[in-house]
Structure formats: structure tokens, C-alpha cells
Amino acid sequence: MSAGINHYKTDLRELFFTLFEQFGFEQVAGQAPFEAWGPDEAKAVLQETYRFSKEVLGPLNSSADREGCRVENGTVLTPKGFKEAWKLLWEQGFKTVGVAADHGGQGSPMMLQVAVEEMLCGANAAFNMYPGLTFGAAELLSECGTADQKKKFVEKLLNGTWGGTMCLTEPHAGSDVGAAKTSARRNPDGTYNIRGTKIFISAGDHDLAENIIHLVLARVEGAAPGTKGLSLFIVPKLRVSADGSSGAANDVALGSIEHKMGINGSATCVINFGENDSCLGELVGGVEHIGMSQMFKMMNGARIAVGIQGLGLASAAYFNALEYAKDRKQGGHFTKWKDPTSPRVPIIQHPDVRRMLLEMKSHVEGIRALIVKLAMHTDKAKQLQGKDDDRAAYHRGQVEVLTPLVKAYGSDQAFRLCAQAIQVYGGAGFIKDYPVEQYCRDSKIFSIYEGTNHIQAMDLVGRKLGMAGGAHFQQFMEDVGGFVEANREHKTFGTEVKALAAAQEGLMSSAMVILGWSQDPAKVSLIPLSANRFLQMMSEVAVGWLLLDAAVLAEKSLEGLSATDPDRTFYEGKKWSALWYARNVLPNVEQAARMMVQEDASPMQIPDAAFAASL
Amino acid sequence: MSAGINHYKTDLRELFFTLFEQFGFEQVAGQAPFEAWGPDEAKAVLQETYRFSKEVLGPLNSSADREGCRVENGTVLTPKGFKEAWKLLWEQGFKTVGVAADHGGQGSPMMLQVAVEEMLCGANAAFNMYPGLTFGAAELLSECGTADQKKKFVEKLLNGTWGGTMCLTEPHAGSDVGAAKTSARRNPDGTYNIRGTKIFISAGDHDLAENIIHLVLARVEGAAPGTKGLSLFIVPKLRVSADGSSGAANDVALGSIEHKMGINGSATCVINFGENDSCLGELVGGVEHIGMSQMFKMMNGARIAVGIQGLGLASAAYFNALEYAKDRKQGGHFTKWKDPTSPRVPIIQHPDVRRMLLEMKSHVEGIRALIVKLAMHTDKAKQLQGKDDDRAAYHRGQVEVLTPLVKAYGSDQAFRLCAQAIQVYGGAGFIKDYPVEQYCRDSKIFSIYEGTNHIQAMDLVGRKLGMAGGAHFQQFMEDVGGFVEANREHKTFGTEVKALAAAQEGLMSSAMVILGWSQDPAKVSLIPLSANRFLQMMSEVAVGWLLLDAAVLAEKSLEGLSATDPDRTFYEGKKWSALWYARNVLPNVEQAARMMVQEDASPMQIPDAAFAASL
């Protein structure tokens, strides 16, 4: 048991590089609506968040995992320390850094908010579910709610007085949200009677806030089947009166909580609405049948947030593994491994350990760059809206195509990298005394919730590729192409930039292959069969590009530094991240493109009964 | 909680195919020393083992995970039900199927024993650690012990009266076994006083047997440093008198047990030997300083056993995921996904689910074939020894080269496939109500213990490739080549056989590349940097080959079957396993070969300090 010990660590220098050197925070900050923000303010927030993550959230991570949540008198009791952490988190404004001032936030660029979130998630992924869902509910209501709803709910959600949830999943409606059976019956006073059971509701009940505001997808009686017939309702656990105070119970009952592989500090609830037919809800925005599109406003943010969760844990796993590898002595140097009298060396000197660490480093930095880039596009779209609508549309388009990459690649790699961290530790990694086995367990859900990674892949291939006549994808490719053209003969990275160009060609040809399939009914099943592969290819091109972009910048910065400048090794590190990824990952994209043209449909051709003789 | 519910399932038809149709059990059985065995006897054992796995071991798997082990009065108490299971296991002879009759076993070919083990491990990996270690200790003593030691210990180990362990690891001697500090001081009567602490000792203490026989690596005072100075000792928990009865305590104290990510029913112990300087041990075989080579006799078997553990869990995960996918309805058919009124279909109809299932199926079947093949070589080596020594040497050589593949590829894929099973389940897979999250947690240790997978890779690249002047590897390649030549123009699988040929070429060229590096001191670090990649390449060639071999057999068998024969779909399934693997995995081998010649040494070139600015 390591209750009370903080394991969270990161490297602020790397966060600063990504925000300030690679993605030009200064170009975004300082102008409306981010006038109040400059690099100094941002650095102060990052330092403060790191302190909070190490001092408050980190020490609760393993203890909450061991203790888990429990149900008493129909309420979830969260693990020890969560209440205090919740209070401090909201008081100190970590969750509202990026919230506009008119909703009580500090109005920073999203670039800063994602870096803050990375630390909060990395320090305690389970805890951060509660404020995360609350934040999402507040965002949705501040965008889609009526004036009255905004007034009544948003402020209290954003100061932690109340918690929020999103209630989509039902026992027979998971990925298939449209199959939801929860019903809503209109009452004469404009409210609705809600009835149904929702499952897998994260933060569905807890003892952190005085009330919980559920956002519930339900079907108004007589509405169409499928997602089009769904409406979104505000269903508080305790009814909220006109003056905004919460009072009597609203027939919202906790069914049970799940026992899970990970994120044990986060309560995953079954919630029964309207067991006594007295559960009242109000329609979000006052409009029926648009629940799904309203929910999607929250869901896009939630998908990005899942990518950030992945990054947070993968990064924490990397830095812990690195520290362990520098500390732990085992075996002699590999050039002297036959000599038992040679001095024992820290395991970071063993080639395979270095290989694992560099693999982790490059992935973590590349995924971080991808996420900050996405945030930068969001910020610029906001800034340019109404000033330069074409540029704003370009930025919004990049957000569209990058979102499934961030969610799916970020989460798939997180789990893989956390498992790799266990391998760096050896047997110790499997033991609960060290933090990495928990990171691995916690991270497994990221590839599943907020739309499985296959749903992300289909979103990319089936929607985003063709969106705006293919313009978003094309612009992404042009951006990569611009970098390639500018750096093809780069003195240090020329070879690797050419590898990026080859990968990009593979990606382009695969996009064309998919386009061909979409026009041939006999081949249409090849699209879902290849979607995950395509998402990975595009993610690898994006990450390879951003790592090389960082390396080119790092090399320029090195030129201006004295031989003894402590930043030299940092910039050296950026170069090796890019080199490793370009040499060891980018070639897989071309290879995947070659596999694509095989048009292997074997999973569709094998008869169901042939999967096993006896099942 | 799913205590008491069995989740274990397999497909005996598939096991029968591998043993009887693909690897010619009949050619091995029926002749000395396996005279008593024929297919009928083997099938009866497999059926009986499956029954035992479902009825006795399976129902204890999740309950043992939840309950774990605990320490009371200095002794480990194992989870509920383990005592009864232990008793039945030995009584009914499941562990001694392959043990020679003169040691009280049934003397079956190893081919049968590995299939039996797969089921025992798949049903309850944690439980099977206890008899597994006991079996290993018995095997070692029956090979290396003096006549007296054999008499005193082997029988009681093999009937479950006593348990056994292997005690290698110490706090500062994990992968670096040679750094062990546990000491042995000669006593005038020929016994030794043992002193030291061993950690991560599986089954190091428990309540299943009346005594525990530890096999302890220790250094006799004055012996050389490193592995060469280690000797192996029999150190019983309770002293054993000349008549074979166990009596007084032997100063062997349980320090503590670990809390782990998985295999929670297996006690992982810290054991203190000689805290009061009264811990007596006797030298295995009566010879000092050969402890490491004696231990290796046990370790080779243990490494194969780990591969089997991986196979057991991956296979159980596959069949559970398959059953769930056939049962669980979610979403409409992908050709009608926009129509919410289309009937909901079992998720096995969704292309990406089929892709995951076929990926699991092909890997599980291919790894099973690899393991049974290794066992077949062991059996034939035993049979041919003294009759045809050249052929016997060939078979032993194949065991040498295949062992690291079975251990490392088997365990790496097991973890990956168990995680994939979670993905098939979606959110339910993350919940403890279903068995797959436990399979995933349990399987993570397999890539670490009994020599990390990098140690396996170095064993392959640094020892096995060059063993016997490279003959073993060359014979492996000739066997693959023979299959390729015979089937290059196969009417159904010709394209895929050519893919195998291309993969084999890639493997060959990489072996040559590695040979070159070994002769150039400036490039020697590329060997450990590439060893894992090479092991994976060779495993993929081996598995691709064996799957195609099975497919060719299946197609022949199909020719003789009537159109309504229920075996038709089974043989169809074998074909698709091979096709999928050949198209989606084999091309990666060529790609890996291309990466090899890049000679990327970036992990060695990055300075330690450049991994992070602030750590």
C-alpha cells in the first residue's frame, strides 16, 4: 500500500516547449478573447497546477484505488480525501482556467487548459472524473441551455456546489445510443416525467457536491426511433426551485456501482429514474428531439478529454519508469555482461531499457503535441470567427479531423505505454507498491468509453474524411506537405523528413483506396475492417510530423545556446524523440498502406460457426 | 462478484486437431517410452481435464482473485477452495500425465501434457502456480538429485503431499541472478547453513501441503562471484528426517506477501532463510557450484510453462469474447446502420468485432501449434535418443530455438489478446462481472517472470542462433523452406505461402545483419536493441508457417467430407485463421527486416540527461 505517497511527476520544461515554442501560445494569448493571458500567467498556472497535482491529487491516487467507492444509505461515498480535493480544486480554479469570464472562469486559451488537464488526470485519473463530468455538463448547458437554465445551473456546476453527469448508456444501448428506451412524458407545466435505467454513469452519484445534475437522453412519448427521436433533459437528483436552491428528492435512485479493473475511485453507477413515476426533468434549451446534437457538444469535448487522460497517465508512467531506471541497479554494463565482477549499473544503461524509455518519450511528446495543436486550432477558430471566417473554418476543420485521432490513438497508446512501463520495472512493476500497474489498469477504459476507438475510426473514415468535400483532410495533408517541402533537405533530419513524406504518400493512397470502396457496394465492408488501421496511420503521420517539427525547432534553438547552457540536453532530447519515431514508427504507415490494397475481407468471409466448433 | 461461476471454456475439437491431425500424436504414442498411449487414451485425458477445469478450477478463478491470499500466524492462507482443488488435482493425476512411470506418473508424451496444462492454466492461472512450481521442483530433483534425494522428495512432491518452489530472485538480484548474496556455510555433517532473503517467490508459502521444499540458489562461502559460484540447495520449510517424514521447523520464515496486479490467488512471497542461523539445506546432487545449470533444467520447462499460461488465458479470453459476441445484441447491421428500425444484431455481425475475433483466433491457434510442436520435438528427441542420435539432436535443437519464442511471443500476445477481448466486450469488459479484465491483469506478469522477454530475445539472438554452429536455426529455416517449396503453387493458399516465403527471407537477412553486428564492436549495441524485434519476426514466421500448414491439412480433410459433415465449418475455420494471419501479420516481418538495416542506435545515442530536463 502506498496511500499518501505522491507518484505523479512531469517535466514542466517539456510542457513549456510545446505551448510556447512549438505552438506559439503568445500568438494566441494577449488578443481577444484571451487578452488577460501571456506566457508568464500561463507558466504560473502550470506551476501551480503541478504543485496541486503533486500535493493534493497524487497522494490520493493509490489509496483511492485500494479503497474504491462504496454505497451507504443509497449514496455513493467516495474515497478518503476526495471531498477536500474537490473543494480545493474548484476554489483554486483549476477546472475553470479555460472557462469564459462571464461563466465565472479565467478565460484562458484552451492550449493552457489542456496542459492543466493533463496534470490533473495524470495525478489522479479516477478523481478527475467527477469534476470532468461536471465541467462537461456545465459547458453543454452554457451552450445549449435557456437563459434561465444557464443562470440556474452553470454557476453552481462551475464552482463545485453541484456535480454533473451525462446519462446516455442503457443496458441495451451502449455504442448504439439510439436504442435508448428511457422515456419522457410531457406534463402540463412544461416539465417531463422521466422513466428509465441508465448504466455505466460515471460520477453518477457521490458525496462531493450538494446536488447532482444529470443530463439524460430520453425519448418523448411518440418520438421517432433511433437517435433522432432523443431529447436531452436536465434531471437533478434533488429538485431545484426557481430561486436556484435544491430541495426535495427527485425520484432519482442509485441502483448499484460497478466493480472495475481500474479507476476505482470513480463511481460507475446504475441510476434508476422515475421508479415511483415522480422524476421530473426539464428540456435542455426547451426544444425536443435535438438531444443527440446537444449531447454531441459535450461529447466532442469529452473525447478530447479522454485523449488527455491517456496522455496524463502515459506521461506519468514514463517519468516514473525513467526515474526507476535511473535509480535501480541491476546487472553489469552490456559490454561486460560476462564479467560478474564488473560494477552493477543503473538499468537505464541497458539497451532494451533505453529503447523502451525512448519509445515512451517520443510517443508521449508526440501525443502531447497533437493535443496542444488541436487546442490551438480551437483557440484560433474562436479568435478568427467573424474576423476571418475562412481561416476560422480551416481551424475548425482541423479540430474535426484531429479529435478522433486524439481520442483513439491517445488512448490506445496510453494503455500500451503504461504496460511498457511495467516492463521497465520488471517484477516490481506488477506489484502495487509501484504506481505503474494502476496506470495500466486505469487506462484500459479510455479505448472504450466516450465512443469506442472503432467508433472514432468510423467517425474519421465515414464522416471526417469527406466533411466539407474532403477539405479538412486535404488541408491537414497540405500542412504536412508544407513541412516536408520546407525540410526535405534538412541537414540533420532530411532522411527522416523523407520517411514522413513516404508515410504521407501511404496515407494518401489509403484514403483513395477507402474512397474507392465507398463507391462499390461489394467492398463496403472493407471500410470498417480497415478503419482502425487508417486512424492509426493518420495518427502516426500527424505525430511523426509534429515530432520532426519540434526537432527542427530544437535544432534552431540549440544554435543560439552556449555549450554549457542547461537547455542543451533538453533540446537534444527533442531531436532523439523525433529520430526514433521517424525510424521506428513512420515506416509502418507505408507498410499498412500496402496491406490495405490486399483488400482482405477474411473476417467477413469466415462463417460464424467456423469461429469455434463447440460454441 | 462472480464467485463460483465457471467462465473457462475451450474447443476440444481444436485441441484434437492440433495433436492428432497436425502433429501426429499417433506417430509418437504407442512406441517406447509411450507404449501405453494412443489417441483414445489421450482424448479421454483431455476430456477429463476439461471437465475438471470447468467444474473445479474455473469456479475458483474470480473468487480467488477477489479474496487473494492472506498471512496468519506466519503462514499463507490460500483462497477458499484451493485446498480441495489441490487434493483432487494430484489424486486424479492431471499434473503427472507426462511424468515417467518410475516417478509415479502416467508417462504420456509431452504433447498431451502441454494440452492438459493449457486447460489447467486457462481455467485458473493463479491456482496452477502452486502445483506448477511443485512439479518443476520434482522434475529438477528427479534429474539432478542424488538417489537418496530422489527417493526422499520426488514422490511426495508428485503426489501433492509436499509443495515445491524455486528461489532465485533477491532484492538486488532479479534478472541479474548472479548477484545473489544468499550464503551457504558447510557443516561437518555435509549439510549447509543457508542465510539470505529471497523475494518474488511464487508459492513460497501456503496451506495446501504439509511441507514446502524450497530449491534455493546460494553461494558457498568462498565461491566465485556471478552465476558460476552459485550452488543449489534443498531447503525444506520443515526438516525432513532420513525416513522421509517432516518434522521440526527449519528456520525458514515468511517475510511478507506482495499485493499484485493479477494472479492474486498465487502467493508471491518474501522468504527469509536462516534468521536464527539454523536453516539447514542439502546440496542438490551433492555437487557445488553447478546450481545455475541445475536450475536451468527447471527454468527451461518453466519458460515453456509460461508460454502455456499465456496460451491458456488468451484462449479462454477468445472463447469468452466469442460467446459474448454471439449473445450480445447491439446496433443494426452495418449495411443498415442509418436505419434505426432495422433489427438489432449480435455484435459478432459487426466487421470490427469479427476482425478482433479472427485476430484472436488465428493467434491462439498459431501459438498452440507452436507449443505442441515444441512438445512433439521433445517427445521425439526422447524416443530417438540412442536409436538415431542425429535425428534426436535435430529435435533437441528445435526445442532450443523454439523455447524463447514460446515464452516471449506467447506471453506478449497473451496480454495483447486479453486486452483485445476487453475491447470486444466494450464497457462490460472493464467490469469484474465478466472474466476478461482478470485474464488481462493475470497475464501481464508472463512477459516478466522466468526471464523477462528481453532475456528470451537475447537467449535467442545471443545463444540459440549460433548454437551448434547455427545448425538449429538453419534446420528451422529448412523446415519452413520445405513447406514453402511444397506449397508455393497451392491452389488455395499459394499467395499466402509466397507471403511466408517473403517473411522467411526477411528473417534470414535479419539474422545475417545481426551476425554482422556481432563482429563489429562499434555496432554490438544494435543486437540488444533489435533482439525483441528479431524474436517477434521469427515467432511470426513460425506461427504463420504452422497456421498455413494446418490450413493445407484442413483443405485436404475437407475434400473427403460430405457437404453436411459437421466438421466442415471447423476446417473452414482453420483456413481463415491462416489466411488472416498471412495477410495481416506476415508482411510485418519483411517490414521489420527493412527497419533492421537502418541500424538505428538512437536509444544509445540520446544522453541520459536528455530523457527529461527535470528528473
Describe this structure in words.
Chain A is an alpha+beta fold and 615 residues long. Among the domains of chain A are: 12-69 and 77-155, Acyl-CoA dehydrogenase/oxidase, N-terminal domain (Butyryl-Coa Dehydrogenase, subunit A, domain 1), CATH 1.10.540.10; 162-289, Butyryl-CoA Dehydrogenase, subunit A, domain 2, CATH 2.40.110; 452-560 and 568-600. Chain A is 54% helix and 12% strand. Chain A has 19 helices and 14 strands. The first copy, chain A, has helices at residues 12-22, 25-28, 39-57, 61-67, 82-91, 110-123, 125-144, 147-158, 291-327, 351-384, 389-425, 436-443, 453-464, 471-487, 494-518, 526-559, 567-584, 587-596, 602-605, and strands at residues 70-72, 75-77, 162-167, 183-186, 192-202, 211-220, 230-236, 238-240, 246-249, 252-257, 268-273, 280-283, 329-332, 344-346. In chain A, the strands form four sheets. Chain A has a five-stranded mixed beta barrel with strand order 4-5-12-7-6. In chain A, a hairpin with a 5-residue loop joins strand 4 and strand 5. The interface between A and B is large, with 110 and 110 residues.
